Amino acid sequence: MMDLLKGNKEIRVRDCAVWLWNASRGFRLPVVFIALIGMGQVAASLFFVWVCKHLIDIATHHSDDRLQWFIAALIGCLLLQLVFSVTNMRLGTKVEIAFRNNLRHRLFNHVMESRWMGKEVLHTGDMLNRLVEDVPTITTAICRNIPSALATVVQLSGALVFLSRLDMRLAGIVLLIMPVALLLSWRYVRKMRKLSREIRDTDSRVQSHLQEHLQHRNLIRAMEYTAYSNNALASLQSDLQTKVMRRTDFSVFSRSVIQLGFSAGYVAAFLWGVFGIYYGTVTFGMMTAFLQLVAQVQRPIVDLGRQIPAFIQVFTSTERLSELSSLDLEQKGEAIILESPVGVRLEEVSFAYPEGKRSILQHFSHDFLPGSLTAVVGETGVGKSTLIRLILALLSPVEGKVVFYNGNRTVEASSRTRCNISYVPQGNTLISGTIRDNLLLGNPDAGEEELKAALHTAAADFVWELPEGLNTLCGEQGAGLSEGQAQRIAIARGLLRPGNVLLLDEPSSSLDEDTERKLLERLSKQMQGKALIMITHRETIAQLCSSVVRLKKEECE
How far apart are CA 523 and CA 526, in angstroms? Predict the structure, then answer.
């Protein structure tokens, strides 16, 4: 296989092999055991052929061996094959599922802990497709295909040795015919690998389209864009179908060439047996054994031929999953918890997104004092949300630094300081589940009184008027609740999280003025000693805050 993929492809195959080896840690010994069981099953099948030959020779009076011993051996072979088959199936399934869950969990955890660069490198639907489709491809290959391929090689080698002991010349003929067929089919490997990658990528685009358009189906329907959405899906699926059929055509041609070679080999073996019996040089038992062995030579080669596309898909899936595992991780370490009061200071901070044409912030400085209630106001695109991401350490300044301080202790912002922050993002961020489930995301250990207090501060007392109260079910993105209700529950969730710095991104965008004022008054009373930073476009909010930071484009550029 390696010889068929030269140049840059060979390097990539080597890299894929290394990635697969590292990915299989903890499961290598079980896979080896599965391979040994497969080899044992092959050995039992070859021994079965030998027993059948002797039984037929005894029945046709060409052998004086004891019949009962070979009948017992025949039954033993059948039972042994059954045991090996059941064990292989059960153990293989158990190891494959465990490996699949482990690999998917590791990759998911890696993606969740990867650094955010200002925009996603891969679409969410694409990442989901890789975790759902490519992970099973890898685990099936390691737990099933590779052990099966090793057993197939043993079966092929054993059958050829047995075949050569019966008749060296005919074994040579069979051996020469079949590799020619394989060589003719393997010339399409490169093309099939390219098509497999294209199919996977197109399948990812289909899933991304489905996920994104289903998520925004109300907007699409309101914009009367449904027909265009359907046409785009039809185009993607048509492209996918075309590529799948092209790969299928290559695969069918490959198997047809292999089958042609096998037919020639089987015909040669059959005619050898017919003429051998006719001239008395071959016993009936020998002919039967030879035909069985030819089948045991053909079957593994067929299996290997069928596994070529599977192994090509493995390398394609490995390339795609290695892209996930190569995402840069955030800085790890023990959390740095600062006791109250805590402030946040930005010192000459400059920032520009990697592909941006202008600086979002330039030499920006401000001290968000402990106990302060600060509104950050500005036009769209001046860097309000970027400011929050810098404080959260989701982004790193190009120049300057963001620090958390408590008295004389100063710590530069990182993922380790995130434990000091309670964050409420913009928009509807509720998950499927009950209101209680959503609140406990902020603090899993929160009691009833803490939940009640947080809801009151967030002006979300309406929860107690609902028939099910905290146990009221919310659909995806808070379906069943109004935008304002969902927003207040999200604020309560943020308040439950331990932290001396509260970041609110447009927390009142869906609230009326009275509820907005009530929310801010309650926050002011409850956030004593904590720094509250609120991103807003509303001047009414700014007027109620103790300090205001106004960002302007000309000041940021």
Answer: 5
